[in-house]
Amino acid sequence: LQIESQLRRAADHEEFRLVYQPQVDLRHGRVVAAEALIRWQNHQLGELRPDLFISHAESTGDIVRIGRWVMHEACRQVREWMDQGLGVVRVAINVSYRQFVGEDLAEQVREALAEFDLPGSALELEFTERVLIEDAPSTLQTFADLRDMGVVLTIDDFGEGYSALNYLRRLPIHGLKLSQLFVEGVPGNRSDVAVCEAVCGIARSLGLGLVAEGVESEAQRQFLLKLGVPVGQGFLFAPGLPPDEFARRLEELQ
Ligand code: G
Ligand code: G
Ligand code: G
Ligand code: MN
Ligand code: NA
């Protein structure tokens, strides 16, 4: 497949970049973190969306190399922002299931943090529910090691997949991300409202943080605030921004 042969060479040809979507305090819009989102510009295929190529990269195994690049680049960027005196801010990166199995993820993170002299708290890892479900023998230890480094651990797209409540209880994670699938329908759609309330209740009773995704309207922001969701991200605030635009945005708000 063309996409797969191009993928293999993309990292070497510097075809990837990261954009950064602000996570904001839903009360007054202060930026509390940024999610790094990968972009791929290929000379033959054009701009490809991650939901298309990430699944290819997962099946070929290229995701392991791409994931290393993402972690390195995100840490390099945070260091640059810190050196510029910007009040940043933690960066969240998306981690695939494949990066977790058969790889020493905790060691990778330790090396990246050390290279750029960053505290663990500068980094957040977003996992999918699949990581919980597969429950590899080393998972619990890896989570514990990462948490001991101060790295923030969250479950992405919570509620979309399997929602393994049993695993949530056992793993030392910090927070959940409420899937935009459910945020989309509030406040009008009653079943979406019910799911948002339920996820909020789970987060609260387990003592977990909660970030709402896909906040596009003022009505959604108001609804989530009333529900007690502290942080959100979405087009209401900003899409993923190139690093210089993200930095400008931060400066404006400070
Ligand atoms: O960036 P976009 O809004 O198109 O993201 C689409 C999907 O791709 C999301 O599910 C997101 O989690 C995933 N994604 C974006 N960047 C990365 C990345 O660096 N690594 C992994 N594994 N997934 C990513
Ligand atoms: O739970 P603990 O006290 O270990 O939290 C450590 C750090 O993680 C704190 O800085 C806290 O604000 C942050 N945190 C807790 N929950 C979340 C979350 O859901 N998302 C994000 N981004 N940070 C969180
Ligand atoms: O799965 P993950 O949450 O990592 O992916 C985030 C995805 O959601 C990215 O593709 C990003 O571009 C997209 N996104 C971010 N904010 C919004 C939003 O407000 N509305 C919609 N429809 N998509 C969003
Ligand atoms: Mn994510
Ligand atoms: Na998500």
Automatic annotation (TrEMBL):
Region of the whole protein represented: 592 to 845 of 851
Chain ranges of the EAL domain: 1-254
Regions that span the bilayer: none
Organism: Stenotrophomonas panacihumi
Record's protein name: PAS domain S-box protein
